[in-house]
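Hi L.,

You mentioned the student needs an example of a multi-chain input paired with its predicted structure. This one should do, with 478 residues in total across all chains.
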Amino acid sequence: MTTTVMPETFRYVSFDSAQIRAVADSLLAALGLRDRDVRIEVDETTPLGRTSVRVEDDGTITIRAESGAFEDLRRPREQSETAVATSLGRLLLRVRDRLSGGFGEAPPDDELSLAQLAAWEAYCVGRLERLGITTNQQRWRYNFRNRHGFTDVGDAAFDRLWSSEGLGWGELDEISRTASATAAVTSA
Amino acid sequence: MRKFFPVEELARDRRFNQITMRDRMADPRSVLNGEDAGKRNNNRLVPSRKDSGDAARALMHGIFVGEIQALEGAGRTCHDFETANGAVKAGDTDTVPFALKLDMARQAWDEARHVEISVKLSGWMGSEIGQYAENTVLFAAACSNDAVLRLAGVNRALEGLAIDVFTQMKEFGDLAGDPYLEFCEDWMLADEVTHVKMGSDWLRRVTENDLDRRKKALEFQSVVDKLFSYGGTRSDSEESPIGLARRFRELAGFTDTEVEEIAEVSMSALNERREAVEKMKSAAAQLVDR
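Structure written out for the whole complex:
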């Protein structure tokens, strides 16, 4: 199966499509998704860092990433292998969750609430860390707190998501809802 | 000890990577801005923005390096100029009143505290020292040979911008329910209002009998204000991530006319960005037509 990166040569940033492809291949192998074609489209005309993923009718995984998602923040316009791995890894894990069952009730990505997305991100990045990818747990904890409130219950929910394997959508959503509900009570 | 320290030689350890405003402006992506070019009507930094966590972390790191440079700038102003013997005479740019130096020393003390607070907040938000490139434009504005221009460029323009930024971050912390962010920004905001007020007061006092010097200083401030509004980062429009904190600026000694002038400069920077985007889009369309 093949992994393609578009564009092959970058004009506005000093990115290396071969390295992006290598990181993607390594992740696909680690996540058991090697049987899939993957197409990665990088929008190098924006420094923003948004990403999206879609599974096409023929099974191809299409990833769209703005250049900021792969960028070394210390050296603007240069690529960071860690950023590439973290951005692709989160998306691929979400795809794997959806494909492997247990996430059938999950809304489409563009309909996830900010809290649901933060919870799923925490669950994904925790697993990426255990795969050996460098992460800053505090970054994701802060993101989770922003969506679920700054409470001890919220922190415990984050810790559970971060350290979990094999969660289903129902469990993940329940953890997120409980944390949000506690924050609402605390702030009332 | 050396006087008038150049921006290129600021001491930093290996964690930092410094860039200039020229580097930033040379990044074509900031004008092209992908599919979003000219589309987003609301970029204000609020928790409901999908990328708000990362945007707030980046801004906090910008505050942190800004505080380091503000500390360095205030410290240099204490040292770079001789102490005036009595009132500063018209045309004398070599001396400053002792009380002005005292205010700059107090400001350096405040900025050192702000650096420590910003480091803690950065860690709290999940970023590391030096994780983002450091733009050295703030210290560049503090390199003038005329202390009055430094007061206009740093205390009034840049510390004025700090008022806008801290107000935005304080609101962000408040809306997100982040108790530390909201509290810390509120305290630092109070200091920034004082710094701007010191700049405004000294600018008027030192140039009381030298209106030509005052005019040049205010022109310099306007240039710095526009530079820091580059790309429409700060303005009254919701398109800008940071709003103009009119009330706190008033408390800091800005007149209504001055606030309106800054608002105009900021909107002008935003409009220039819009025009640049339109030009890029039409140039791209022409390429496609060919």
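You could point out the following to them. The first helix of chain B runs from residue 21 to 25. The domain at 7-289 of chain B is CATH 1.20.1260 (Ferritin).

Best wishes,
N.
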